[in-house]
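In the current project phase, we have settled on a layout for protein records. One protein thus recorded is set out beneath this paragraph:
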Amino acid sequence: MSRAGRAVAGRTTGAVVAGVVGAAASRAAYEALRRRPPAGEQTWARTNHRGEQVTLLEGPAVAVGAIAAEVVAAAVESQLQFSSERSVGPRSHLTVALAGGGALGFGILDDLAGSSTRRGLRGHLGALAEGEITTGAVKLAGLAATGLVGGALLGGGPSDRLINAGLIAGGANLLNLFDLRPGRAVKVATLSAGLIAAGSAAGSAAGQDRPSGLAAVAAPVGAGLALLPEDLAERAMLGDAGANALGAMLGAAAAVALPRPARVGLLAGIVALTAASEKVSFTKVIERTPVLHRLDMLGRRPAEAAGDGPAGRPATVPVAEGDHVGAQVIRLPGRRAGRHRRVASGEDRDRSINWIFGFLFRVLAHQQS
């Protein structure tokens, strides 16, 4: 085998290993969190678009699994002193992990302490204009800070750093906008990862020296796919924590692997979709586009399964325009269909937030010692 062939085989093997480690760590984290959920199971319980109870623990589990895989990959490459020009490199792996960790922390804050009265950029910025600081606004500021730190760590000129920061923060926010139906966010993340890998390969073929996109996206995709069955079966959902973390890590992977023209184009797409989300329902667009609708329904429970729920559940009514055709959804007073409903007490939320951030600080302290 030629030197180039060995390099390709080595990068592919590394990507597969990162994906497998991410998947295994994600499943292990999910099982551990389900056995002993921080601050109690009800802290993480939400009502989905059918009016059925699901858990948000999928999100932290996916994020922890992906971050663990990135840290392992960084340690292995550091120990082996892997020098291939197309390897991701320890610094880049750790930057992807940092992006995921920052998004995870702020996503948990919004999941556990957020309010449903303000939605979207317009809602949170409008609240700020009125002197109200929402958890969503705090999360947006935190994602922006995470993006700026990640962009700085990846290096390059000022414009490159700003582009990379935008990819991390924008990717985190955008993927969360798709987390409205079972499995949708993970499917979008997987398709996005494929585009990043393809863009990286095309850039490499054109002689542009960038790390492997496949290796960069393997860990978050592996972690997400490992818990996709739980999501599709409507036993769990990513929530802000999982969707923000996956989106941030894919944004960081794009920053690592794509040439500048591709990064600029991707950032423009993220900005355009985010702006469009303020006016257009992604769910309506997906439902009205046959190909997107088929992909969205792939692996999901049939719409007819949403019929009558157990006694004591809120009554169901036919879907409004834009929701899944033929489905029945819960109409809760003051709530929009498709958004999860919080059922935990404020005390439980505070306890859980303290536990999560305390755990993260202990891990960081251990790494530095």
Residues 40-368 form one domain. Confidence is low (pLDDT under 50) at residues 305-350. The radius of gyration is 20 Å. The CA atoms of residues 288 and 305 lie 21 Å apart.
